[in-house]
Fold each of these.
Amino acid sequence: MNRQQIIEQIKKKQSFLAIGLDTDINKIPKHLLKYDNPVLEFNKQIIEATQDLCISYKINTAFYECNGIKGWQALIDTFKYLPQDTFSIADAKRGDIGNTSSMYAKAFFDPAASEMDFDSVTVAPYMGEDSVKPFLDFEGKWAILLALTSNSGSHDFQQLKDGDKKFFEWVIEKSSQWANADKLMYVVGATRGEGFLDIRKYAPDNFLLVPGVGAQGGSLEDVCKYGMNKDCGLIVNSSRAIIYASAGEDFAERAREEALKVQQQMRNELQKIHF
Ligand SMILES: O=C(O)c1cc(=O)[nH]c(=O)n1[C@@H]1O[C@H](COP(=O)(O)O)[C@@H](O)[C@H]1O
């Protein structure tokens, strides 16, 4: 999905919500355990209940990788179940020396090799240009670079100052030379409030993937106030607050209710920029 198509989906659905399929077998409703692949069944029902309210699904691969072959199969099958009109994110946080990154890129971008054809992968920028380039070399695909994350550990490195800039500002400034806003997004935690102003100084046009509303308590209002640009420029993720709204048989219905609340807030924010 390209930038224009993302913007069209935002306008059409009046939403910039990504639902995070951080599906933990220990947290899903017990009645699903009778299925051959309970994680897949859970994901299917969540997707069916929410797809008109979100523009994206973010699959955090850790929740699948930890379950070995069955987990990886659930990842592939969930990928295949994602609606065509949603932007797919493999949240794998990869990045290694060039030839290894090429393999990581193939794992998510080359369906002939892996059966998966995600629109994007999250990438850790710490190893620099040659570790990110292999993801950018795939035509029509996106790399989503970690910039200023939502967790307390973001202070350890990302917010250290060198000269007139913090480390995350160096990351954005430098990586902007590798690709433009049609291929590169940045992760910025919803808990960063006015920190979005610093991000927008260096990335005025890029879409930002913003996790941290819902369970981590980030404010959607602040994210929009400080981070929105004329194209919206935001894909805001919520995982646990939506997918685990109920542990009962009504889990999909309750997930829809939670997604709807977020979507309605997003619609109000989009009206402010006349979307
Ligand atoms: O890259 C991410 O998606 C990410 C970056 C970040 O700074 N903070 C963060 O929470 N995430 C991911 O976003 C999701 C947040 O989940 P909830 O807190 O349950 O909404 C998880 O999949 C995290 O791994």
Note: The chain has a mean pLDDT of 97.
Amino acid sequence: MSLSPFNRVLIVGIGLIGSSLALALRKAGLARQIVALDHTPDHVAEALSLGLVDAAGDDPALADGADLVILCVPVGACGKVAAKLAPYLAPGVILTDVGSVKQAVVRDVAPVLPEGVQFIPGHPISGTEYSGPSAGFAELFEGRHCILTPTETADPAAVARLQAAWEAMGSLVTIMSAEHHDRVLAITSHLPHLIAYTIVGTATDLEEHMQQEVIKYSAGGFRDFTRIAASDPIMWRDVFLNNREAVLEMLGRLHEDLGLLARAIRIGDGATLEEKFTTTRAIRRGIIAAKQA
Ligand SMILES: NC(=O)c1ccc[n+]([C@@H]2O[C@H](COP(=O)([O-])OP(=O)(O)OC[C@H]3O[C@@H](n4cnc5c(N)ncnc54)[C@H](O)[C@@H]3O)[C@@H](O)[C@H]2O)c1
Ligand SMILES: O=C(O)C(=O)C[C@]1(C(=O)O)C=C[C@@H](O)C=C1
């Protein structure tokens, strides 16, 4: 669809994702004016000095006149932030978010919004282990998936406009239910982060001389885990607290599978190990092939 720019976009939380959105929206010509609300004074100052936005502060009145509002705060903060903005949201405004969990955001945000606000939850499946306004870059969403989870009551025209905006920033948009999103992301994103946090924690909890060796030899697999385990602690605290059920379900399955592998190692069942590792190698190669296609 042809897309007219938004008049005033409010980005709430000008960290990694918020600043990347400010840059990507500008690059794609999607906003006449971009303003940011953030409760960290240093981030407000940084966003202004980097020229990411036209105005910034910690005043919910920044939402006045906005036709697109994007919540880019940790998922546990979305409800409180939406409640503060509510008095300034005009009917017809599109309010979306980028949170890594969707059902909890819908639960917390939907009830506090005034009638007429078009609430369309979203989640770009792209990020890094860095945080804050200086971590953002305009290309973050290019060639990456973005999931939207509108409810049945959402205005199809508003959903189409938001979808077109993400596509103009280079994303591949999929629409699904919030519940399905949370189960899929529990296994593809949340569990891998939990494993990374655990393995890095376990390794650094070893005896002193072993810790030195962990640092010295962390060139291969372990190093990849340390990158993921460097991700923002508040963001990930909120992800796990707000996608409890799905994460615990996937963790249960992981425990079962680990148990089977532990048994195969204990009884010297090489065939089981080889079969498992052959299957997972094929999965990795399939992912790479799909990316290149
Ligand atoms: N980092 C990723 O890889 C990634 C990817 C996709 C989606 N997300 C989601 O994007 C959201 C933001 O993540 P990020 O990586 O940009 O985090 P970030 O820490 O880089 O930025 C968050 C910003 O929100 C501000 N903030 C926090 N609470 C606030 C509040 N109550 N009021 C006003 N400002 C507040 C912080 O000061 C900070 O500037 C999260 O919901 C996260 O789940 C993150
Ligand atoms: O690339 C990374 O560093 C990420 O962890 C990005 C990642 C992911 O798990 O894929 C992390 C959280 C988001 O909600 C979406 C994307």
Note: The chain has two domains: 6-176, 180-292.
